[in-house]
Amino acid sequence: QVQLVESGGGLVQAGGSTRLSCTASIRFGSSGAMGWFRQAPEKEREFVAAIRWNNNRPYYSDSVKDRFTISKGDARYTVYLQMNSLEPEDTAAYYCAAGRGTILSMTSKPRGYNDWGQGTQVTVSS
C-alpha cells in the first residue's frame, strides 16, 4: 500500500498564499495520477487539482483555476499545490491522493484514486 505524507497548510490570511506538499512512499506506473481533494465540515470531499504522471498535464476545479498550481517535485512521486489568492471559502482539510492506474475520466473523482493521505488543514481568515 502506498503511504502518502503531506505537509504544509495552516492558518493564512485572505489573499495570502501557502504551499502543500505530498510524497508517495513507493513508485507507481506512468498511467497514474496524483491529486488533491478537500473537505470542509459537513460537506462532501471535492476535487481541487491533479496531475497525470505520463504527460504532466494538470487538471483543476473551476473554483481554484488561475489561483492554485499543481506541480511535480524534484523527488520522485512528490507533488506540490501552490495556493495563491486564498479565500475563506478555501478553508478545508486537504487530502493528497495517488492513483496507480487512474483513467483519464476519473482524474477528478475520488473513486479514481487508490491511496489517500491523512489530510492537512488549511484555514483562511477573513
Summarize the structure.
The chain is 0% helix and 48% strand.
Structural class: mainly beta
| Poorly predicted residue ranges | none
Distance between the termini: 39 Å
Number of strands: 11
Radius of gyration: 13 Å
Task: Determine the number of helices (DSSP H or I, runs of at least 4 residues).
Answer: 0
How would you characterize the largest beta sheet? Answer: 7 strands, mixed
**Strand content bin:** over 45%
Report helical residue fraction: under 10%
Mean pLDDT: 93
Instruction: Give the overall shape, derived from the CA principal axes.
Output: globular
H-E string: EEEEEEEEEEE
Characteristic key phrases:
mainly beta; four-stranded antiparallel sheet; 126 residues
